[in-house]
From TrEMBL:
It comes from the Bacteria. Residues 24-277 form the EAL domain. Keywords: Membrane, Transmembrane, Transmembrane helix. One of its GO terms (molecular function) is catalytic activity. The lineage of its organism: Bacteria, Pseudomonadati, Pseudomonadota, Alphaproteobacteria, Hyphomicrobiales. This is Putative signaling membrane protein containing multidomains (Diguanylate cyclase (GGDEF)/phosphodiesterase (EAL)). The chain holds residues 380 to 664 of 664 of the full protein.
């Protein structure tokens, strides 16, 4: 009976498994053409200073709306890019878009705003991230101090390949952020040795922070840690005014989340900045 049940279950799940594998294969196979055709784009999510409410930068997030599969989630795109040996091209596409935005920001009244891209730890084994980025940022005459690279804590752990690449990131002058901080187990010694500029606290500590004593303790401790190590602290996933106020009171400096602005295509940024300025002026008046 148990065997039968097992077999029945297997039959039931098989089509789903196969279509998942088919989907991955299809995404992998179409990725190169999609990159060539410019179907993958970067959207940008704003970051603000919690105290002054000024816009301090943007994070680039890859988007691919497939003609019939619909929107493909970024982690799926990244996995496909790695499997298809296209991780460097994906990073180059997003970095190009980031540089185009950086070039426009001064004329939008934001000459010091940064733009961040994400690099997943496994990419460090696949190609030289700084070779790709140095080429693009210098072609666009970008000040590397305004170009930020976000890596997850995983990358910090693998010190052999990653350590060398992270040192090159520092030598090239890019800003280095540790993403989803608190979700992994990076060593404080490495954070200091690698001259990490920013800690982006994992969203799990931010959700309902105003109602969770425990999250308040954690976020407060991480904000002091950031100050002690001279690292900027960014909170991500801020969805409400209550959370934003609690985070400011806990000593967090910078924030990102749906409450401030959702990821948007670059062409929508000027209008979004206008709206935001008009709204703050109304508040002051
Ligand atoms: P991440 O770098 O931690 O990016 C933040 C994610 O949280 C984004 O999801 C963003 O849309 C979402 N988010 C922002 N504010 C809020 C909020 O207030 N509430 C909630 N619930 N979510 C919020 P997205 O765009 O789906 O990206 C998911 C992950 O995929 C990213 O997490 C990043 O690790 C990776 N990723 C995205 N773009 C790229 C890329 O170009 N290259 C690489 N290697 N990874 C990327
Ligand atoms: Mg990120
Ligand atoms: Mg640095
Ligand atoms: Mg994150």
């Amino acid at each position: 009976r148990a065997k039968d049940g097992g077999r029945r279950q297997w039959r039931e799940f098989e089509p789903a498994f196969r279509s998942q594998a088919d989907r991955q294969n299809q995404i992998e196979h179409e990725l190169a053409d999609a990159l060539d055709a410019g179907d993958l784009e970067a959207w940008f999510q704003p970051q603000v200073d919690l105290a002054s409410q000024e816009i301090t930068g943007f994070e680039a997030l890859v988007r691919w709306h497939h003609p019939y599969l619909g929107p493909i989630a970024p982690p799926e795109i990244v996995a496909a890019a790695q499997a298809a040996n296209l991780a460097d091209r994906l990073t180059a596409t997003v970095a190009e878009a980031a540089c185009r935005l950086l070039t426009r920001l001064p004329s939008l009244g934001l000459p010091r705003a940064t733009v961040a891209i994400n690099v997943s730890p496994r990419e460090f084994d696949l190609y030289s991230v700084t070779d790709v980025l140095d080429c693009i940022t210098s072609a666009h005459c970008i000040d590397p101090a305004l170009f930020e690279i976000e890596i997850t804590e995983e990358a910090i752990l693998d010190t052999l390949v990653a350590g060398e690449q992270l040192k090159r990131i520092e030598r090239s002058g890019y800003k280095l952020a540790v993403d989803d901080f608190g979700a992994g187990h990076s060593s404080l010694a490495y954070l200091v040795a690698l001259k990490v500029d920013r800690l982006k606290l994992d969203r799990r500590f931010i959700t309902n922070v105003h109602q969770s004593r425990q999250n308040q303790e954690i976020v407060g401790a991480m904000a002091s840690l950031g100050r002690a190590l001279s690292m900027e602290v960014v909170v991500e996933g801020v969805e409400s005014e209550e959370e934003a106020n609690a985070l400011k009171a806990l000593g967090c400096q910078f924030a990102q989340g749906y409450f401030f602005g959702r990821p948007m295509p670059a062409e929508r940024i000027p209008g979004w900045i206008e709206c935001r300025r008009a709204a703050t002026q109304r508040q002051v008046a």
